[in-house]
Structures are given as structure tokens and as C-alpha cells.
Amino acid sequence: MKLKSWFLILLAFTILVAAAGCGSSSTSTSGGGTTATQAPTPDGKALVQERCTVCHSIDRIQSASKTADEWKTTVDRMIGKGAQLNADEEAAVIEFLAKTQGK
């Protein structure tokens, strides 16, 4: 049973990594040169709804009240437990939670 759980976690991780890589950056050409366009700022609210509710109910998240530093500690701990957030997404989630669920 434990092996099956690890396999499912690995499979989910692989799918998430593959999905994150699709369309992660775009390029445009103008005047013969290629320039990378900057990705839009991640939406903290959408990320909380998509990524955090995989393990927690939205009610649990909304019932918490923490400072920005406390949210950073919490989000870092969740990333350590497998939450899938890159650095920009992490910053957006922390900013959103500090604004909406801050002390």
C-alpha cells in the first residue's frame, strides 16, 4: 500500500511538472530579433484555490489569521511537504494571504 501511495505522489508530481513547463514562457519576434516576454504576475487567490486546497479546505485557510512572516513560514513548510509553488507563485500566495488573512 505504501508503494502505491508513493507511486501516485510521483505520478502527480510528474504531471504537475510537465503541465508547469507547457507555455511557461513565450517569445515574440520584432525586427528580426527574439525577445522573451515576461510572464504575468501570478494570481495569489487562484493559486491558493488551485494548490492549497489540494490538501486543505478553503475554510481552514480562511479561518487562519497570520502576519506576512507567519504566512511565509507556513507556506515554506507546505512547500517542504510537497506543495508545488515556484518562487514567484510563493510570493503571490504569501502576499494574498497576508492581505486577506493577515493580523
How would you characterize this protein structure?
By secondary structure, the protein is mostly helical. The protein contains five helices and two strands. A two-stranded antiparallel sheet has the order 1-2. Helix 2 (44-51) crosses helix 5 and helix 4 crosses helix 5. The relative contact order is 0.15. The model is unreliable at 21-34 (pLDDT under 50).
Portion in beta strands: 5-15%
Q: Shape from CA axes?
A: globular
Based on the structure, what is the oligomeric state of the protein chains?
A: single chain
Mean pLDDT: 79
Largest sheet: 2 strands, antiparallel
Q: Care to count the β-strands?
A: 2
| Alpha-beta classification | mainly alpha
Strand order of the largest sheet: 1-2
Q: Residue ranges: pLDDT <50 for 5 or more in a row?
A: 21-34
Rg, rounded, reads 17 Å
Number of helices: 5
